[in-house]
Specification:
18% helix; Dihydrofolate reductase family protein (chains A, B); 215 residues; Dihydrofolate Reductase, subunit A; Riboflavin_Biosynth_HTPR (chains A, B); 6 helices; two-stranded antiparallel sheet; homodimer; alpha/beta; 11 strands; RibDG_C (chains A, B); 27% strand; DHFR-like_dom_sf (chains A, B)
Chain lengths: 215, 215
């Protein structure tokens, strides 16, 4: 089967924001509270580092555990990797995820600023510039026949949607309003001309899972 | 995380039957029409051998593609492997699945009748007797730290439920009535004392996905 370009478990507010304004080292999601935005995923057994005895193994968990299923590489925006803007001044920064990042595949960080690749556990981070199509070509080739996950944030997913390079999306819409920040959409209906679209509410967490795939 | 014992993508009729009466070589599901019972899965992109351009990549597909996710071994009942009853007389029979079975992990077929193991592509079939707990011990040990899938049919899943050896179930209830055959349950509510239970309807296919996990 042809390699797919997939958005997985990306969470936005009811008004379409993936993060609030004012990202910093202390607040990777800016004004947004990631504990509130991501509560649905944090309550599942398959969330890395979670797996408490009372965790859900229902619908939310099935979607969380699809995160790495068949994935061979990830592309992420620079703001997902770091709160830094401009040329890299601190090469000691290696992302938010500690010594064992939850990716386990090559990660391509989109940035206009050069930086050498590095490896943490089984995840290698590469820093690449260029148009979405060029970055995607590198990721597809590194994926060993697997799919490529678009890891976010909203801006970088938006860039791939605008270039019509996305095959399928799972976006969880959380019952919170942010009002400002990094926006994926005003409404998912914006994509209905190009994507099939199912809405699956989770009674357990209160999020609505939007599953979209190319027409 | 501890190894889980999982039922995945097991489909029953609205009245709880996994197969009709009268299994034969020509009718692996007996009186039941597998094309009707399994229509929801056959319409998805992730169903092995499917992947047509118009296939669904919605909820049904997410659940189909979870089939092998994290699985290290499968246990199946003798009737899933073969329509044969009694001692093996035809060792040329190697299951319904052709040269490349869709399991890709060791498979333990529960039978009272001895038969040597054999391998097709990356799937090895072992033939084992004993109580569910004894068979499970062998499968857990062969799973390399992965989960064990209970592949069905209904009778063998029932035996593991009765022995309280099942951690999670995904059962799709199809909008057909069979009236007789191999029965999983009268109603999933029978399990509510031991399992959390979510019902997730698929608007696309008309099946209701039941997700259950141990309390």
């Amino acid at each position: 089967m042809a390699q797919q370009v997939r958005v997985q478990n990306f969470t936005v507010s009811a008004d379409g924001y993936g993060a609030g304004e004012g990202q910093s080292l202390e607040r990777p999601f800016g004004a947004a509270d990631p504990g509130e935005l991501m509560a649905w995923a944090l309550a599942t057994a398959s969330m890395p580092g979670m797996g408490r005895l009372d965790s859900s193994r229902g619908l939310d968990d099935r979607l969380v555990r699809d995160f790495g299923n068949g994935i061979g590489a990830e592309i992420m925006g620079a703001h997902k990797f770091s709160p830094h803007r401009g040329p890299w001044t601190d090469l000691e920064w290696q992302g938010w995820w500690g010594e064992d990042p939850p990716f386990h595949v090559p990660v391509f960080v989109m940035t206009h600023h050069e930086r050498p690749s590095f490896t943490l556990s089984d995840t290698t981070f590469h820093f690449v510039s260029g148009e979405p199509a060029q970055v995607l070509e590198q990721a597809l080739s590194a994926a060993g026949g697997g799919d490529v996950r678009l890891g976010g944030g909203a801006q970088s997913i938006r860039a791939f949607l605008d270039a019509d390079l996305v095959d399928q999306l799972h976006v969880a819409v959380a019952p919170v309003e942010l009002g400002a920040g990094s926006r994926l959409w005003t409404s998912p209906a914006e994509l209905d001309d190009r994507f099939h679209h199912e809405e699956v509410p989770s009674a357990t967490s209160g999020v609505v899972h939007h599953l979209l795939w190319r027409r």
